[in-house]
Design brief:
The protein is an all-alpha fold. The chain contains 8 helices and no strands. Helix content is 78%, strand content 0%.
Amino acid sequence: MNELFDFLFSQYKDYSTTFIMLEALGSVFGALSVVFSARNSIFVYPTGIISTIIYTYMFYQWNLYGDMIINVYYFIMSVYGWLLWSRKGNDNTALLKIEKMTTKDTIKCIQIFVLSVIFVSAVFIYTEKFNYWWAYVDTFITGLFFVGMWLLAKRKIENWIFLIIGDIIAIPLIFYKGATLTSIFYIFLTTVAFIGYYEWKKKLSARIKTSQLQ
């Protein structure tokens, strides 16, 4: 048991209490954000913003610039998504409904993925991070997360697919970087993301059936 504990948390002996508390707090608000997202609740954004601010600071301190960029983007897309989800129609219901991706969305996602990979690669080259093997994986994950967050802001159901794939790849990578609490948090994210996908799918199907009956 002690061996398992040491394997998972031995890296924390070199961390300050403040950083451990910040990581735990960022994980809690991040978890709340994903739960609210699965419920299609606008509270996904205020809780997510708090989490991204914490993680942006932490990753900057750890010189993990790829992860930091992801969280800066999360912050921007959270503000953008919050504004979109807040818009109401004349009947006081949300104007933005859960939808499937269109051909136009697919083209936009490809553009976002390619541009994000190029941008993060440029950052890694500038900071000489491509000396590490995980930097190549980071660039790919960043592209997935950038696309996923944009689709979430647009309330497209496929956002879950991109986020799930990114989370699964990120779990061992983040653990390797020494953030065990965050890697455990990503396991939780992945589980809730599967639930969120099926919840959104049910709501989308129910709305389509209702519109067909009218």
